[in-house]
Amino acid sequence: MSKLITHAGTRRIDEGIVRSVPEPEFTKTWHPVSHSRVIDALQGAVIEAGLGIREREYSLNHSGTRMFGSWTLDHMVNGSAYCLVFRNSIDKSMLLGVGGGLKAFICDNLAIWAEFLAFSKHTSGLDDDRLVEMSQDALTGAWGHMEKLDHWHRSLKTVDVPAQQFKEIAYDLMDNNVFAPSRLKAFQEAHEEERSLIKVSYDFTGRNLATHYDRPTSLHTIHGACTRLMRTENLFQVADRNRGLIRVCDDYLERRAA
Asked: What is the predicted pLDDT for the residue at 125?
């Protein structure tokens, strides 16, 4: 387990490390499901649905008892790919759960829907057949989350944010632990990157004539800046920060509509 302790808790890790975590012994009332079995069952559900997995990312806590996974699927919409996100524990700390996400194709930003579908309590009745069946149901539910997140995310483009409100939102983001106060400058820099659009064109020689266009500040650019800051964080943190990010955006939408 030394390899787990070295690589877990702070960043994304390889699937092989996740699969190497042993499954605890069963009890009369508790039937833990190993991370490897969860991966196999969900992978079967994805294949059964006729989908492919373009990218796999995982995070573990230091003991290896808690796992978070994110799979980028081969279903593209509006420049983003649907993601299947899931979590599991073998220490009774959380229920096996599945949710949906979006990953921007160009900038590699990952957004995760705030809610997770509880799979099941880890009971003695959860055998491999039941796990596969539940995986198929969970994928259907997670697909609904992906569609909701896609619609919500695209709607943010229409919500312009004046300079004063931008400052207020930045403080709300820090209050909701979307990013630490020490990263305020990094957030501002990431936001400037989000506001920059690149239109690629070529002259008759084939030379790249890339032109940058600035977009107005909107909830969409703010959301993009926050997810940029999360790229190097472990997936547990990404999920928690996404919940806060969605909450801040929704609060602003409510105040704006009042």
From this structure: 60
